[in-house]
Specification:
The structure is a single chain. The chain has a domain at about 90-185: Superoxide dismutase, copper/zinc binding domain (Immunoglobulin-like), CATH 2.60.40.200. The chain is about 35% helix and about 35% strand. The protein has helices at about 10-15, 20-30, 35-90, and strands spanning about 90-100, 105-110, 115-125, 130-135, 140-150, 155-160, 170-175, 180-185. The strands form two sheets. Strands 1-2-3-6 form a four-stranded antiparallel beta sheet. About 15% of the residues are buried.
């Protein structure tokens, strides 16, 4: 742009498109706006902005309320669920030993909707022995609950399951894959 004024070159062309009435208005200056119109417009703009702020504040408060209510509900539900599980689902922890075979066992039984979860800890099992766990039902029936291979230290931690409810279990038996009994864990029926 010549002269560094920053104005586009079309300005002379635009000035040429003005008629006499336009030029008279330019000479007289801008007409003063109607003061009442200006005040009404400003008042309306102020009302709209205030209404928008109120709506925004109300929506923010409502969203915060929803977040708080959801959090409280979730915490109460988790607390209720964990209380129910710790009070009723966790069953007894029972220990037994076979002093002849020097095998010690401890099992925690947990009632589940599908049966009983078993968490068994064994010590003194012959190293690398292949073992099986049987659940013995109150009617004498045996039910396979799990199998594993003992570690080189003769220890094992096993999570197993029986499809019978806890109150129908009379005991648990751990045997080798050759049928040699390692330990029997009697359970009192509930």
């Amino acid at each position: 742009m010549p002269g560094g004024t920053g104005r586009p070159r079309r300005l002379p062309g635009l000035l040429g498109s003005l008629d006499q009435t336009d030029l008279e208005h330019l000479e007289d200056g801008e007409p003063e706006p109607d003061r009442q119109f200006l005040e009404r417009t400003l008042l309306e703009l102020t009302r709209r902005r205030l209404a928008q702020r109120r709506r925004s504040s109300l929506l923010t408060a409502a969203a915060a309320l929803v977040v708080v209510a959801t959090t409280v509900t979730a915490l109460l539900a988790v607390r209720s669920t964990s209380s129910d599980h710790s009070a009723s689902a966790l069953g007894p922890s029972v220990a037994a030993a076979n002093t002849t075979a020097r095998v010690h066992a401890e099992v925690r039984l947990t009632q589940q909707p599908w049966g009983t979860a078993l968490h068994l800890v064994l010590r003194g099992v012959p190293p690398s022995a292949h073992c099986q766990l049987f659940a013995v039902l109150a009617n004498g029936q045996r039910q396979a609950a799990g199998s594993w291979q003992a570690s080189y230290e003769g220890a094992a931690v096993i999570d197993a399951a029986a499809d019978a409810p806890l109150n129908r279990l009379a005991g648990l038996e751990v045997v080798t894959d050759r049928g040699v009994g390692l330990v029997s864990i009697p359970l009192s029926s509930g």
